[in-house]
Specification:
Structural class: alpha+beta
Oligomer: single chain
Helix content: 25-40%
Radius of gyration: 35 Å
Largest sheet: 7 strands, mixed
Strand content: 15-25%
Distance between the termini: 67 Å
Number of helices: 28
Low-confidence stretches: none
Length: about 850
RNA sequence: GGGCGGGUGGCGGAACCUGGUAGACGCGCUGGACUUAGGAUCCAGUGGUGAUGAGCCGUGCGGGUUCAAAUCCCGCCCCGCCCACCA
C-alpha cells in the first residue's frame, strides 16, 4: 500500500473492531468506571457533521479513557418517539414506526462509518414496548405517590401540532418544533409534580460544580425562587376574598388598586352583580383574546378593565378598585396582585394609562418623590412615609415588621414562591407512550395494574395529524373494562411527552435488556452517575431539569443511591455552513451545485438554473437550507479520520464554528504526511526500542535529544488538552510534532542505532496519541510495526520528565520592557554571566545608550530586563 | 431591562487561568522546485510600515497598576446568545 487511501483501511478496521466486540463492556468492580454519554438523537432524518461534532468529541474522550485504563461505558440509542417522526410519517405516508426504522438504519451506518466506539449491544429505542413500559411504570409509581395528577388548567396549545406543550417547549411564545404561536387553552391534562422537588432541584445545583455556570444560572432562573408574603383582600359587599402574593410587602401601604389575571376564575363572580355586567364581560374577553405578543411584551401598552367592585385594604381598611389587567399572569402566584404604582414599574404604567392614583410610601434617603410626575417607579430600599405605624422606618426592616404584623393578625403569611410549574406531560398525539390509566364511570380514574403493562400502542392506525388525539379514533384501544369493577371503561388516549422517555434513558443503558425491572439497581449503582455528559445548550432547562427530577424521584423510591445524574456537563457549539439562496428562483441551492467563477480576481457565485448571483449567508447546518455536509461526503472524499480531526480542529468545542470546505484539507494533508513518513521509514523501526531506550536516553544529544523533548512535550500537552476539552489545540500539538518529526528525519542518520530507537519511540508514541482522534489510521500504522489489535487496548503514553528538560534556553533581553535581543544560553546559566552577556549584545548597548542601569530583573530561564531612566 | 459569552493578521483560531518572545496550528495568498500537466507533492515567504538590516507601530476605545499588560483593575464602545410584565 503506497498511497494514503482512507477508504481502504477504514472499513477494514471498523469490521475488526466489530468482530472483536471491542467496545462491549460489563461491570468490573476491579476497575474504575467511566460513564460517557452523548445526548441521544431523534431519528428524524440523517445525521450531518454538525450533529457529529457531539459524537466525535465523545469518541475521543471515551477512547482516551479506555487507554487510561478505565472501564468505559459509551452507549447510544434513539429518542424515537415524538412529533418529528409522526409528522414525517404523515407527510410521506409512512407509519411512524417504519419511518423511524429507516432513519435509525441510516444513522447507525453513519455512526459506524465515522468509527464511533459505541457498545451497540446496549442500544435503546424509546419507541420499543420493552422500553416505554417503564415510562408507564414510572408514571404509575408517581401516581401512587400523588406526584402524577390530572387537572384542568390553562395550558399551552400549538394549533398546528394540535397538541399541548410544556412550558419548556414554548420558546418566545411559539412552539419549539414548528414555530406556530402558542395559545392558551383550558384543558384537563396530566401533570407531574415537579414543584414538589423545586427546592431540591434548586439546592442541589450547588453540587454541580462541573456544569457550565450558565446552565446552572438558567436552571436557577427557571426555578425562580422568591420570598414574600401572601395575604387576602376582602371584596366590598361580597363574600369573596382575593389572595395575592408579593415580594414587596414593605410597599403595601402604597396599594391603590388590585389587579386580577383575565383568566382568574374570580373575575366572572366579581362582575356577576354589576349592572354593567355585559360590557365588563366583553372587556375581559378582549383581554383574553390578546395575542401572546401583546400580552407578554414589555413595550406593549398594558390594558385592563375596571370590574366595578372594590377591595378592602386589610391594614388601612381603605376601599381600592379591583381591575382585571392583561399583565397579570394566572400561572404565577395567585393570579392576582396588589398594585403599587409608586414602587412597581408595571403598576405605574398601568396607573398612568387609566389615571389611577399613585401613592408614595418609600422615599430615597435624603430625597423625595413626586407622585404626580414620576415616570419611573422607585424600587430601591428607602425610608417609609405615609405608612401608618411603620412611617420613618427603613423599608427592609418595615417589610419584616409588616409581615410579622400580618401573621399575628392572621391576615397573611410569609411564603416561598417558585416560578417553576408542574410538568405537563399529556400530548394529543399518536407516536408516544400511552398514559396507563382508564376512566370508569363508576370508579373514576383507575391506574393500569403493573402486571398489565405495557399498554401497547395500537399498530394499525391512520394518522392524519388532524381531528384530535389519534388514539381516540381507535375503538378497540379506547374501549376496555375496568380493572377495578369489571364494568365498561375508556382508556386515556393522550400519550406522554417524549421528554419523559429521555429523562431516565441513561439509567436503562446500564441494564438495557432487563425484562423484569426498570433496571437492576446494582448495575445502575456501578455505572451511574454519568461522569461526562455532552450535548447542546438547548436542553439547559428542559431535558436536564426533567432528568434531575426523575433521578431524585428514583432516589426517593430507594432504587438508586445518588441524587444527581450527571457529574460533568459539557455543552458544545453549533456548526455553521454557508447556504446559498437564489432570490430569483426563491429556493436554496446546495453548495456543490452553485457555479463559482472568478471575475477580476473576485469569486462570483451564481445560481445553476437562472445564473443570477446567489445570496450567501452563514446558517446552522440544516436540511431545509440544503447546506448540510454529511459523513458520507466526508468519508468518500477524505476519510473518517480527516472528518474527525477537522471537526475537532475547527475551534474550541464550546463555541460555534464554521465548516469550510478548504479547511478540511489541513487535517487530510497532516494524515497524508504522517502516512508517508511512517511508510518511508518502516526500516528504521526497531521493535525492542522499549528495552533499549533506558540505557540510551541519558547519552542523547542533538536532534535525538531535541526530538525526545518535543515528543514528551507533546504527550504532556495532548493529555492536558484532552482533560480540558481543548481538542483544537490537542490536534494542533500533534501537527506541530509531526513538523518537528519531519525535520528530525532529515537531520538524523537513518542507520544509526540511537536515532532508530528514538525514531521508534516517537512513531509509536505519536500514533498512540493519535488514536482517540483518528483511530483507523492509528491502528493501521500500529499494525505495520507488528502491533497486535487496536490501540484502544494499549496504554496511553506518559510524559518522560527527563526528556522534557532542555540543555539550552533562549533568553529574552529587554530594555525598559521592550525586547531588544534574544540570547541562547545553557539552562541554569549563572545570572551574573547572563547579565554580562546580555549587556554585550550590540542592540542592547545601543538602547542603553550609556544610561545607567537602575535595576535588573531576571526571570529564570526566560528573560532579563534592564531598567534605565 | 437582566444574565452570560466575545472583540487578536486576508480567514478560523493560539497565547488570557498563572503578567514576561503576540500571532502556535491550520486555511488562504505570494514566489520557487519537480512535472506533458497540477486542483498532487516539496521548499521559501506571509501583522503593518521600512529597498535591506536596524527601527517604529500593532491584540475594540480611554485611563490605571507594573521594570514589563492581549493577559490584572476601573470606565466606555461594539457584536453574539439566552432570559424577561414572575408581582
Amino acid at each position: 500500500m503506497e498511497r494514503y487511501e482512507p477508504q481502504a483501511i477504514e472499513k477494514k478496521w471498523q469490521q475488526r473492531w466489530k468482530n472483536e466486540e471491542l467496545f462491549k463492556v460489563t461491570e468490573d468492580p476491579c476497575r474504575s468506571k467511566f460513564y460517557y454519554l452523548d445526548m441521544f438523537p431523534y431519528p428524524s432524518g440523517e445525521l450531518h457533521m454538525g450533529h457529529m461534532r457531539n459524537y466525535i468529541i465523545g469518541d475521543v474522550l471515551s477512547r482516551y479513557m479506555r487507554m487510561k485504563g478505565f472501564n468505559v461505558l459509551h452507549p447510544m440509542g434513539y429518542d424515537a418517539f415524538g412529533l418529528p417522526a409522526e409528522n414525517a410519517a404523515i407527510q410521506y405516508g409512512y407509519h411512524p414506526r417504519d419511518w423511524v426504522e429507516q432513519c435509525i438504519c441510516r444513522m447507525r451506518s453513519q455512526f459506524d462509518m465515522l468509527g464511533i466506539s459505541y457498545d451497540w449491544s446496549r442500544e435503546i429505542r424509546t419507541c420499543a414496548p420493552d422500553y416505554y413500559r417503564w415510562n408507564q411504570w414510572l408514571f404509575l409509581k408517581m401516581y401512587e405517590r400523588g406526584l402524577a395528577y390530572r387537572q384542568p388548567a390553562p395550558v399551552n396549545w400549538c394549533p398546528n401540532c394540535e397538541t399541548t406543550l410544556a412550558d419548556e417547549e414554548v420558546v418566545d411564545g411559539r412552539c419549539w418544533r414548528c414555530g406556530t404561536l402558542v395559545i392558551k387553552k383550558w384543558l384537563e391534562q396530566w401533570f407531574l409534580r415537579t414543584t414538589a422537588y423545586a427546592e431540591r432541584l434548586l439546592q442541589d445545583l450547588d453540587q454541580l460544580v462541573h456544569w457550565p455556570e450558565r446552565v446552572r444560572i438558567m436552571q436557577r432562573n427557571w426555578i425562580g425562587k422568591s420570598h414574600g408574603v401572601e395575604f387576602t383582600f376582602a371584596v366590598d359587599g361580597m363574600d369573596e376574598t382575593i389572595p395575592v402574593f408579593t415580594t414587596r410587602i414593605d410597599t403595601v401601604y402604597g396599594v391603590t388598586f388590585v389587579a386580577l389575571a383575565p383568566e382568574n376564575p374570580l373575575v366572572p363572580k366579581l362582575i356577576a352583580r354589576s349592572p354593567r355586567r355585559r360590557e365588563l364581560e366583553e372587556g375581559v374577553t378582549r383581554l383574553l383574546q390578546e395575542s401572546p405578543e401583546e400580552r407578554t411584551s414589555e413595550e406593549a401598552q398594558k390594558r385592563g378593565v375596571f370590574l366595578d367592585v372594590f377591595a378592602i385594604h386589610p391594614l388601612t381598611g381603605e376601599r381600592v378598585p379591583i381591575w382585571s389587567a392583561d399583565y397579570v399572569l394566572m400561572e404565577y402566584g395567585t393570579g392576582a396582585i396588589m398594585a403599587v404604582p409608586a414602587h412597581d414599574q408595571r403598576d405605574l404604567e398601568f396607573a398612568r394609562q387609566y389615571n389611577l392614583p399613585v401613592r408614595v410610601v418609600i422615599i430615597p434617603p435624603g430625597g423625595s418623590l413626586d407622585p404626580e410626575s414620576m415616570t419611573q417607579a422607585y424600587v430601591e430600599p428607602g425610608i417609609m412615609v405615609n405608612a401608618g405605624p411603620f412611617t420613618g422606618m427603613d423599608s427592609p426592616s418595615a417589610a419584616e415588621a409588616i409581615a410579622d404584623l400580618m401573621e399575628q393578625k392572621a391576615i397573611g403569611r410569609r411564603k416561598v414562591q417558585y416560578r417553576l410549574r408542574d410538568w405537563l406531560i399529556s400530548r394529543q398525539r399518536y407516536w408516544g407512550t400511552p398514559i396507563p390509566v382508564i376512566y370508569c364511570d363508576r370508579c373514576g380514574i383507575v391506574p393500569v395494574p403493573d402486571d398489565q403493562l405495557p399498554v401497547l400502542l395500537p399498530a394499525h392506525i391512520r394518522i392524519t395529524g388532524k381531528g384530535g388525539a389519534p388514539l381516540s379514533q381507535v375503538p378497540e384501544f379506547v374501549n376496555t373494562t375496568c380493572y377495578s369493577c369489571g364494568g365498561t371503561a375508556k382508556r386515556e388516549t393522550d400519550t406522554m411527552s417524549t421528554f419523559v422517555d429521555s429523562s431516565w434513558y441513561f439509567l436503562r443503558f446500564c441494564d438495557p435488556q432487563n425484562a423484569e425491572d426498570i433496571f437492576d439497581p446494582e448495575k445502575v449503582n456501578y455505572w451511574m452517575p454519568v461522569d461526562q455528559y455532552v450535548g447542546g445548550i438547548e436542553h439547559a432547562v428542559g431535558h436536564l431539569m426533567y432528568s434531575r427530577f426523575i433521578t431524585k424521584f428514583l432516589y426517593d423510591l430507594g432504587l438508586i443511591g445518588f441524587q444527581e445524574p450527571f457529574v460533568r456537563l459539557f455543552t458544545q457549539g453549533m456548526i455553521y455552513h454557508e447556504s446559498y439562496w437564489c432570490p430569483r428562483c426563491r429556493v436554496y441551492r446546495r453548495p456543490r451545485d452553485v457555479v463559482r467563477k472568478t471575475e477580476d480576481g473576485k469569486t462570483v457565485v451564481t445560481c445553476p438554473v437562472c445564473q443570477s448571483p446567489v445570496a450567501i449567508t452563514l446558517d446552522k447546518m440544516s436540511k431545509s437550507k440544503l447546506n448540510v455536509v454529511t459523513p458520507e461526503e466526508i468519508c468518500a472524499g477524505y476519510g473518517a479520520d480527516t472528518g474527525r480531526l477537522f471537526i475537532l480542529f475547527i475551534g474550541p468545542p464550546e463555541q460555534d464554528a464554521e465548516w469550510t470546505s478548504s479547511g478540511v484539507e489541513g487535517p487530510f494533508r497532516f494524515l497524508t504526511r504522517l502516512w508517508r513518513l511512517v511508510l518511508s521509514n518502516k526500516d528504521r523501526f526497531v521493535s525492542d526500542w522499549r528495552e533499549r531506550l533506558p540505557s540510551l536516553k541519558i547519552l542523547l544529544s542533538g536532534p535525538e535529544r531535541d526530538l525526545r523533548r518535543r515528543l514528551h512535550q507533546t504527550v504532556k500537552a495532548v493529555t492536558e488538552d484532552i482533560n480540558d476539552f481543548h481538542f483544537n489545540t490537542a490536534v494542533a500539538s500533534l501537527m506541530e510534532f509531526l513538523n518537528s518529526f519531519q525535520d528530525f528525519i532529515e537531520e538524523s542518520d537513518r542507520k544509526e542505532e540511537r536515532s532508530r530507537v528514538v525514531y521508534s519511540e516517537a512513531v509509536d508514541t505519536l500514533i498512540r496519541l493519535l488514536h482517540p482522534f483518528a483511530p483507523h489510521i492509528a491502528d493501521e500504522l500500529f499494525s505495520w510495526h507488528g502491533g497486535q489489535g487496536s490501540l484502544i487496548c494499549q496504554p496511553w503514553p506518559e510524559a518522560d520528565m527527563d526528556a522534557l528538560e532542555a540543555e539550552m534556553q533562549t533568553i529574552v533581553v529587554q530594555v525598559n520592557g521592550k525586547v531588544r535581543a534574544r540570547i541562547t544560553v545553557p539552562v541554569g546559566y549563572d545570572e551574573e554571566k547572563l547579565k554580562e552577556r546580555a549587556l554585550q549584545e550590540p542592540n542592547v548597548r545601543a538602547h542603553l545608550g550609556g544610561k545607567t542601569v537602575v535595576r535588573t530583573i531576571i526571570v529564570p530561564n526566560k528573560l532579563i530586563n534592564f531598567v534605565v531612566n
